[in-house]
Design a protein that fits this description.
14 strands; 46% helix; globular; Rossmann fold; 5-stranded parallel beta sheet; alpha/beta
Length: 399
């Protein structure tokens, strides 16, 4: 395998946020990277196949005897990293890659990913590869865990995508310590859009884009309150405005599919003629639809990033640090711009948040027009940093 930048911890492009990060970063950097993907067939099907080389992770669970052997080997030797070396295949069999990028996003916010994140980081470091955690959001409370801090300390560079994460990291890592800490906006703020023909019922500039996800439903404090709020929001738009409504998915994995709650909402309002449910598409195509909305209400972070970067006034139905941090960096505060799903107590909370968005529409759009060019320039610094580190670490060492 020739020497390449390696991108890893990528779950697959049916999560179009994951796709958007890789797509945007690949367009920023000079070298064509190698993407190690858990679901490489998804990346081939959407927008990444021409932007990077794709290596499908090996799935040891599909090979029963090998699975048993590796389990026994790890028990006897304590070599937990052997599982990562197997999954990543040729990356570890050939000469060491000089630079490996953990495609961060909010990976560190999920308990089921923490072990693999640490093992992969450790395995690359043991091989002599410098690692970067890129475009990440991390809940500050997680940094109280010494094991997580020890893992994060192994990265050469951490690039936080919002200031809440950045300030929390600075609290625990002094300027003289590894890792190097930077704060640049999510690469996906620079994602290009692809504008396909609009479906019937989607009126450009007169449509409210709406995204809902099973993920936020899992975080709600009152069972069923999220969908009830979305129902009341749509009913309000139909009763009190002339807007059309577009229901837009952004993650379509079988076990975590935005189209499930979207289908419920569409069936509820289909007969009004005011609601259209969009099909799946690449991150660029979905941004093309979102960018032609007048207003947007979204649960998925990268659906809202697509809206923000298209200058569409947006209300985020958030559940974690990423939503709050991005809104704070763009607007100076998260109040009114982010409605935490955990705070939904009454059936009309989302409707009230949307009413404020409508009232402030022009002010918000003017603000986005003013700040977004500079914000996107800051996002491009991520690519420049990767290029600089690649040039530094890929050069033959002088004796």
């Amino acid at each position: 395998m020739e020497e390449k930048i390696v991108m890893y911890m990528h779950a697959g492009s049916k999560n179009h946020g994951c796709e958007a990060i890789v797509n945007s970063l690949c367009r920023m950097i000079k070298e064509k990277a190698l993407l190690v993907s858990y679901r490489g067939w998804e990346d081939e099907a959407y927008s990444l196949k021409d932007l990077c080389s794709i290596l499908q992770e090996k799935k040891i669970e599909e090979k029963k005897l090998l699975h048993i052997w590796n389990y026994l080997y790890r028990k006897l030797t304590g070599d937990e990293e052997s599982l990562i070396r197997y999954r990543y295949g040729g990356v570890f069999r050939e000469k060491k890659p000089p630079l490996a990028i953990s495609i961060g996003g909010d990976n560190y916010c999920y308990d089921n990913m923490l072990k693999d994140l640490g093992l992969a980081n450790s395995a690359f470091n043991r091989r002599g590869t410098k690692t970067i955690l890129l475009g990440c959001s991390i809940e500050p409370a997680l940094l109280e865990n010494p094991r997580i801090r020890a893992d994060l300390a192994k990265y050469h560079t951490i690039i936080a995508r919002e200031s809440i994460t950045y300030e929390a990291l600075k609290k625990y890592f002094g300027e003289a310590d590894a890792p190097k800490l930077l704060c640049y906006p999510d690469p996906a703020f620079t994602l290009p859009k692809r504008e396909l023909p609009l479906p019937e019922g989607f009126e450009e500039g007169n449509t409210v884009g709406i995204n809902v996800s099973p993920m936020v439903q899992q975080e709600e404090s009152c069972p069923g309150i999220t969908l009830e709020n979305y129902v009341n929001l749509i009913q309000f738009i139909i009763d009190h405005t002339e807007f059309q409504i577009a229901l837009i998915p952004h993650v379509v994995w079988e076990q975590n599919d935005d189209r499930a709650p979207i289908r419920q909402l569409y069936e509820r309002f289909q007969e009004t003629g005011r609601v259209v449910a969009l099909e799946d598409g690449s991150c660029e195509e979905l941004k093309g639809y979102i960018g032609r909305c007048r207003l947007f209400v979204g649960a998925r972070t990268h659906a809202t990033i697509a809206a923000y970067s298209s200058l569409v006034p947006t209300l985020v139905v958030g559940y974690s640090v990423k939503a709050r941090g991005i809104a704070r960096d763009l607007f100076g505060r998260e109040e009114n711009y982010v409605l935490p799903v955990q705070s939904l107590k009454g059936p009309e909370d989302l409707k009230k948040g949307f009413q404020w968005l409508m009232e402030q529409e022009n002010v918000i759009r003017e603000h986005l027009e003013k700040v977004m060019p500079g914000y996107q320039e800051q996002a491009l610094l991520t690519g420049k940093e990767v290029d600089r580190l690649w040039e530094e670490f890929s050069q033959p060492q002088k004796i």
